[in-house]
Specification:
139 residues; mainly alpha; 2 domains; 4 helices; 2 strands; elongated
Length: 139
């Protein structure tokens, strides 16, 4: 009888390890967290106290840990963040679908014709009033 073994269904889920159990991405992010957080702790522990400096160091390091660990459906955190910024701010807005039919086009043309006729009528009245006032002045 064969012993049961767990097999991953998708080979893409297998991450190649770089150092120990860390991938390159995790190693780089953890290294950046250490580079940012540890010097901050040593510079501020005398002025702020050990507890406050340690808490601030963790707060500085947390974003690096987040970028190292978080993935959603195989997409890393910074790509998700870029997509969210792109979707919400760079290409913001709802694009409404608007179809045009021949009826809508004819309606638009008819509206434009009415506007032109109204402007011409207004212009005609203005010319008549201008002619009459001109005649009154010169006669």
């Amino acid at each position: 009888m064969a012993a049961p073994s767990e097999v991953l269904k998708d080979p893409k889920d297998i991450k190649q390890k770089f150092i120990g159990s860390f991938t390159k991405r995790q190693f780089i992010c953890f290294s950046l967290a250490a580079i940012a957080g540890v010097p901050f702790y040593f510079m501020t522990r005398k002025t702020l106290g050990t507890d406050a400096a340690a808490l601030l160091m963790m707060a500085i390091m947390l974003p690096f840990f987040f970028f190292a660990i978080y993935e959603k459906e195989g997409v890393p955190a910074e790509k998700l963040l870029f997509q969210m910024v792109n979707m919400n701010f760079i290409r913001a807005g709802i694009r409404d679908y608007k179809s045009t039919t021949k009826y809508d086009e004819e309606k638009r043309i008819e509206k434009m014709k009415k506007e032109v006729e109204a402007l011409e009528a207004k212009r005609g009245k203005w010319k008549e009033s201008a002619k009459s006032s001109f005649k009154k002045i010169h006669h």
